[in-house]
């Protein structure tokens, strides 16, 4: 029998101090549940090497790849295909990767899930293609070296805390199609004008 619902309180820590220590675990748990929701309970992680870089991915019920792990530093181009499956979703692949400096996302990607680039403090540049329609919660939170971002017109929603604490962020260009920007999306972006 597959899990059909998980209560918001199911993993709620009993003490506030414990909640702070478990913050990183939350993103990991959310990533697992998100992959299970899209890929199904039989989802298995596969690996592929592209241009000398090893990637981990799951295949969704639609036959598309969900990237779940990749290189942790330098300039990275996410492949458009892994193991013969088109990459359409980026999960929390680069969570806490302070050595990551730039990322190019392929035109096959439609969704960037919560925490994908969370706290990548060395990230200076990201290229978001016009295929992306949603940017999840806390995707770029804490990316202190990021100075500018262009959100393409294809994006309809930007999650909460998406750019919070991006202290170096000076400019954001948002496409006309964005209809929903989550709370605190730009909180702590003190360089933003």
Describe the structure.
The chain is an alpha/beta fold and 193 residues long. It has a single domain, classed as Alpha-Beta Horseshoe (Leucine-rich repeat, LRR (right-handed beta-alpha superhelix)), CATH 3.80.10. It is built from two helices and 14 strands; from the N terminus they run ααββββββββββββββ. The strands form three sheets. Strands 1, 2, 3, 5, 6, 8, 10, 12 and 14 form a nine-stranded mixed beta sheet that branches. Strand 5 (81-82) and strand 6 form a beta hairpin. The protein is globular. The termini are far apart.
Could you provide a short overview of the structure?
By secondary structure, this protein is an alpha/beta fold. It contains two helices and 14 strands.
CATH class: Alpha Beta
Kindly, what is the distance between the CA atoms of the first and last residues, rounded to a whole number of angstroms? 52 Å
Rough shape?
globular
Q: What is the CATH topology classification name?
A: Leucine-rich repeat, LRR (right-handed beta-alpha superhelix)
Name of the CATH homologous superfamily: Ribonuclease Inhibitor
Total domain modules: 1
What's the alpha carbon Rg, rounded to whole Å? 16 Å
The count of strands amounts to 14
The SS-based structural class is alpha/beta
Give a short account of the largest sheet: 9 strands, mixed
